[in-house]
Amino acid sequence: MAKFTQEIEVSGHIIDSSILTKIFDKIMDLHGEFQVEEISIGKKKKDQSYARLSVTGKNQKHLGEILETIYREGAVSKIQKEIQLKKSPKNMVMPENFYSTTNNHTQVFHNDKWIQVENMMMDKCIVLKENRAFCVPIRDLKKGDEVIIGENGIKITPPERPREGVNVFEFMGSSSSSERPTQHIAKKVAEDIYKTKKSGGKIVIVGGPAIVHTGAADSVAELIRLGFIDGVLAGNALAVHDIEYATLGTSLGMNVHDATLAYHGHRNHMEAINAVFRAGSISNMVKTKKLTRGIMYQCIKNNVPFVLAGSIRDDGPLPDVITDVAEAQREYKKILKDATMVIMISTMLHSIATGNMLPANVKVIVVDINQPTVTKLMDRGTWQALGIVSDVGAFLPMVVQQIKKQKK
Questions:
Q1: Measured distance CA(76)–CA(98) in Å, rounded
Q2: So what's the pLDDT on residue 180?
Q3: Domain 80-160 falls under CATH 3.50.50.60
Q4: Entry pTM
Q5: Model pLDDT, residue 166
Q6: Cis amide leading into 317 (omega within 30)
Q7: Strand, coil or helix: what is 37?
Q8: What crossing angle do the helices spanning 348-355 and 325-336 adopt, rounded to 10°?
Q9: Which pLDDT belongs to residue 172?
Q10: Distance of alpha carbon 143 from alpha carbon 132, whole angstroms
Q11: Between helices 371-378 and 348-355, what is the axis angle to 10°?
Q12: Domain 168-407 class in CATH
């Protein structure tokens, strides 16, 4: 029986980051065969390793399926082929057989050299313009754009295990267990937030209304006031409940500090929405001293940008909420540009949306009381994700307390 074989290469920290193991597994899962033709393992921690394999399929189609799968794990063809391009037939339409991106750093082979793809995100296409390659969402695609098709000439670099010593992400091993010592994790997270900011990093929070319900709003506001947060991404609910709590002391009509139902509390969140409409915007509410505390107040006072993305279930929504989801997505991307760390707190909807916009090397911290939510958000193929199953109302105050200790 005829065999169909191709040589591939893989290099980097491929042993300790399990990249080579994943490639072996994928070939075997697809019932292919491989032979290691050459392997060189780095002797020191900083040294890179290299492997050259012959990969065999039952026929050309089967081999193509195997190669396509392992290219996405970091393998590249030994004989490098140029990328193939095809023009977009009209606005917001990708050509047939377009290449769909991962969130891993990607290079493309064009004019005998590798070009880094800019603005890396998953589930987009790659457009080539003036010898530069860009990750482009379908809605931003213009007729005539040169779009990469097929799998030729594409090199993916999967995230490698951090090598700078034990930090919170290695310590946890990308865990999402609720049985870890919460206070110890809070200390480690605080240290990493502090170090990230000290080294000039950019930290963005993605938050849901449970921040307010659980009593963690003061902690998030304090993080913003202390200068540790560079952007806030949320929906209508976080802002509404934050303003309700800041002005009326309740969240959905419940007194936050003792969990009792306030008199006429059922109308409090509508009262908060009405107060913002009366002022014209959240910033006007701050200017007129109608809003003097809370997360949104600290964002405005400290010039921290925020984006509130609308959904069909919103009450109001507030005048600051972007109700066009495509526009909201674009504004989210602007805030996330060059982010070093993203902290996702108690919102599956906005966290998944944000995760889809991030390259794999951005550190992600997920805090939620719901284990399946944490697991879903953690499953992003990165070493640099930390899942914490905990009550945010208890966890975030511990983090802020530890950050304040670091500052002393």
A1: 19
A2: 56
A3: no
A4: 0.85
A5: 44
A6: yes
A7: strand
A8: 60
A9: 46
A10: 18
A11: 10
A12: alpha beta
